[in-house]
């Protein structure tokens, strides 16, 4: 499908390679044109811990995701990113904004960006159905949205069904890697829990289609909000399904 424009905003360093490269590959395979943006137009790099060494073998990207990342990292769009802090930058021309997550503390550059928050507040007006704008977010990418506040000091997703990385997942990763990585995993989760209660006004509920609370992480699982063209996932294992569902939603809305 030609004519669909996607933007993937990124921090300079630290995003998860699976949550970035698998959606990129899926979008381009669907015929979408994908662009990248960093704060000042710096070429981004994903978290090396997820790409190499013992951390890759234990918790990191699969070989398929690594290969996808290597290909993506050589593309013109990736090596010539836009600058989201530029006066000429706007999200208005994009059909999809996709927000990858990541555990490395560098991702806070995107999560905490007031400039990106302002762009998202404006863009979100077109995401409400039957609008033609779409937003996807994985893992800590959801925090970019939850930190984006309306004039009423509520997150733009305060009335959305949303997924995010469960604390039990990140807690398990923290304790299994603490000997080597220190607090690499835990800090963003602690902040995320405080954020969800402060901004969303409620604890996040992660559900299966049956309505039961889901504690395991073996299955792919994403949530599409009923009111907005917004789809979210928990972790790298959801990346393929998340990207597929976004493509389906875009095609559905384009055909209508």
UniProtKB/TrEMBL annotation:
Superkingdom classification of source: Eukaryota
Chain segments annotated as coiled-coil in the UniProt record: none
Pfam families: ThiJ_like
Protein name per the record: DJ-1/PfpI domain-containing protein
Lineage: Eukaryota, Fungi, Dikarya, Ascomycota, Pezizomycotina
């Amino acid at each position: 499908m030609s004519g669909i424009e996607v933007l993937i905003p990124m921090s300079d360093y630290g995003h998860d390679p699976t949550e970035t490269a698998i959606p990129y590959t899926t979008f381009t395979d669907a015929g979408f044109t994908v662009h990248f943006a960093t704060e000042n137009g710096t070429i981004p790099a994903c978290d090396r811990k997820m790409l190499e060494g013992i951390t890759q073998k234990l918790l990191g990207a699969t070989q398929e995701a690594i290969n996808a990342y290597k290909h993506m990292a050589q593309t013109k769009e990736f090596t010539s990113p836009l600058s989201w802090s530029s006066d000429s930058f706007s999200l208005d021309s994009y059909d999809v904004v996709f927000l990858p997550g990541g555990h490395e503390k560098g991702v806070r550059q995107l999560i905490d960006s007031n400039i990106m928050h302002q762009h998202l507040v404006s863009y979100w007006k077109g995401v409400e159905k039957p609008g033609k704008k779409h937003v996807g977010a994985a893992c800590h990418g959801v925090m970019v949205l939850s930190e984006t506040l309306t004039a009423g000091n509520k997150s733009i997703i305060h009335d959305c069904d949303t997924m995010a990385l469960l604390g039990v997942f990140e807690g398990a990763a923290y304790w299994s890697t603490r000997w080597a990585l220190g607090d690499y995993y835990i800090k963003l989760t602690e902040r995320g829990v405080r954020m969800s209660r402060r901004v969303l006004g409620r604890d996040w509920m992660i559900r299966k289609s049956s309505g039961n609370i889901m504690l395991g992480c073996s299955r792919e699982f994403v949530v599409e909000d009923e009111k907005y063209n917004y789809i979210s996932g928990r972790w790298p294992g959801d990346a393929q399904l998340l990207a597929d569902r976004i493509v389906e939603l875009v095609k559905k809305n384009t055909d209508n």
